[in-house]
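hey can u check if this looks right to u? its 190 residues, i copy pasted from the old doc so theres a chance i mangled smth
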Amino acid sequence: MSLDIIAYDPKKLKERKDKFREKYSLSWENLEVLDDFMVIPSKNNFFYFLHPEFLENDTKKYEEMVKDADKIQDLDEIDSFHIGYGHFHCLRKELGELIGVIYNEDDIFNPTISYDDELDDTALLRFFLHPDCDGAFSSYDIQKSYEQFLNLCDEKELQDKKAGTWGKEIDEFLNFWRKCSEQKLQWEFC
């Protein structure tokens, strides 16, 4: 299994969501709510049983809405980072050691993470605590966490890590992180 971190422009995604809302008078996020409440056009729906003349047109409109919603979900990928889940864990562990984030895996069923108080409630700590299998990481958090990492990281220690076992992955990820920070991109973990 591998992790893909998709980098995309959050402004473009917002524009697509706004267009959807404007076209259908419904937010993209609320489309799932319609599905949950079974507002999907169907001959089994009581309204369409009483008014079958609306079923065909409403079904077409609903299918169009679903297609447009699917297009919103297709992120305009600008860049991406691909790595195995286990490797990503090791990568974060290596990066964490550079700034005082320590992964304690003595108890495999109850791993813990410790960190310096100065990292409490920071974007950088959110990066280390973020689930690696799903969810988004905002452009703000990417920029702040990258900046915080650079400020806290000792350059000599970083060079030593780059010369070590995880050097290639560290270098590739730091380049990806820097590029995303500079371009104000957002990440989707999948």
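Strands lie at 2-8, 77-84, 101-104, 112-115, 135-137, 186-189.
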